[in-house]
# Entry
Amino acid sequence: MTAAMAVYTEISDGELTRFLAEYDLGAPLSCKGIAEGVENSNFLIRTERGSFILTLYEKRVNERDLPFFIALMEHLAAQGFSCPTPIAGRDGRALRRLCGRPAAVISFLEGLWPREILPFHCAGVGDALARLHAAGAGFPMSRPNDLSLEGWQQLIGATARQADSVAPGLAAELAEEMAALRRAWPQGLPSGICHADMFPDNVFFRDRAVSGVIDFYFACTEAFAYDLAICVNAWCFEPDFSWNPDKGKLLVDAYQAVRPLTPEERHAFPVLARGSALRFLLTRLYDWLNRSAGALVRPKDPLEYLAKLRFHRAAEGAATYGL
Amino acid sequence: MTAAMAVYTEISDGELTRFLAEYDLGAPLSCKGIAEGVENSNFLIRTERGSFILTLYEKRVNERDLPFFIALMEHLAAQGFSCPTPIAGRDGRALRRLCGRPAAVISFLEGLWPREILPFHCAGVGDALARLHAAGAGFPMSRPNDLSLEGWQQLIGATARQADSVAPGLAAELAEEMAALRRAWPQGLPSGICHADMFPDNVFFRDRAVSGVIDFYFACTEAFAYDLAICVNAWCFEPDFSWNPDKGKLLVDAYQAVRPLTPEERHAFPVLARGSALRFLLTRLYDWLNRSAGALVRPKDPLEYLAKLRFHRAAEGAATYGL
# Structure
């Protein structure tokens, strides 16, 4: 398996030393750009005080959202949820600037993310998601999900002309799906802080248990069951895109052991699964159609999520998901 | 400054755990692909015993050369030269296989490589190079430099048709330079183990002193003064490609404080400087002309080394370099 990943910004040793002098972390001992995360530049730094992640926020992250993300990680960590903790400089601020970009130092989380999803991973992620939803209660800030219905509509508009080059008839299929989801989209479900991107590369395991969750840069205020649907899409299909009902049941059972779904959430789940499949189908399709020849990151295959969307459309109610 | 770097191979958590079980390093705690090195895939791993670099050797490294590189690092480290030390598995072997590729775990070196070259860096690298040459004495293996005259001739042939698309008249200039270097190339200079790629990203500093040298995958048996010429090219020109005589003198003086050049080496130095400039000009030109649309690594600018080559051609003897 070959992966393409990128570091977008290079930090000089002088800039790094000056930047770290604003913290109580001691001098830098090493700094390695790490090939994870396609949105930002991440560096694993070792200082006299330990290991940390230094993130430079690249243009795909809206700078106005950064205070929300930083405060959310602080809140979740304070609630005992294992996630990166922003490290404040001596002036108390965690969000700073480096190389002309917003930057933050966050704690380093141990663990490995699973490349091959085994059933125990699905149980672990269901449990972790429910604990994340519980830990988010009481967080005072909110952030709308800009990748919900209106965001999808925009992406459909932006991809309509070229979508059929990826799969014949795709543009029409997307428009029909959008119309159906607009009619069926549930309102008033239990909602709160959602991760909204809890894919395998964002969940670390150690000794078969979740050791931490990273990358809160899509986090938003959303229906909890929609976040669960994102996880089901990301963790419970096999590499050939076939649905694995055992993994699905393990994931939703582990979630419900912490927070049982309401009848309304169970009823809405098939529609939420379609919506979350459409969301990743559309962003992948957009990235696919707009990839540049000199791109540092290989776009992900949009057809994976087209297959998942079609599975959900054909599914016969919540029982499909073990609900 | 934007950098493009790559990890070519992804390692699953299961493969990593099984691989590390062959060592006495404890269980893996984390594994991050690092965005350094354009030839191989490198991972910074943390285990219960500490931090290490795991390298998967990609196709650009000839597998038959790996025993030489591994044994050389072991030899240099045993001589007290600060470089990565290969870690042997329980069976005593350091060179193993992972993900279908040759792989080795090597020790992690602290330090930062300089993005901006200051005069003290040049003194440090001159001293380190001379100590490396001394530490290589007694190493029983040898490896010819396949990027010397015959290698350049091959690269000139492979780039001749397209070279003028990079700079008008370049193909003819390269052929003339090659002919001149063939006539003038020195024989019988003091030789031994050379690094042959001691560029800034391969030299780590801490507290203004060299803390270690990495990446021995071009190391070979070569004239020591040629290795010095590679360093002079890599460290003593400014970003606008202009020669900095102060940096040049600091580098060669620090080298000579450990190992003074012979009169023959001083006399040959301008030709060696041209040859080493041609060597990097040709490999960069080849990579530039053969870059693919989906490349993960942006090729380096060949014109940088054309400017350096022209400087050396116009130079008036060894005095130019403070020799």
User: Anything to note?
Assistant: Chain B has a mean pLDDT of 93. DSSP finds nine helices and ten strands in chain B. Strands of chain B lie at 28-34, 41-47, 50-56, 86-87, 96-98, 101-107, 191-194, 203-206, 209-213, 220-223. The longest strand of chain B covers residues 28-34.
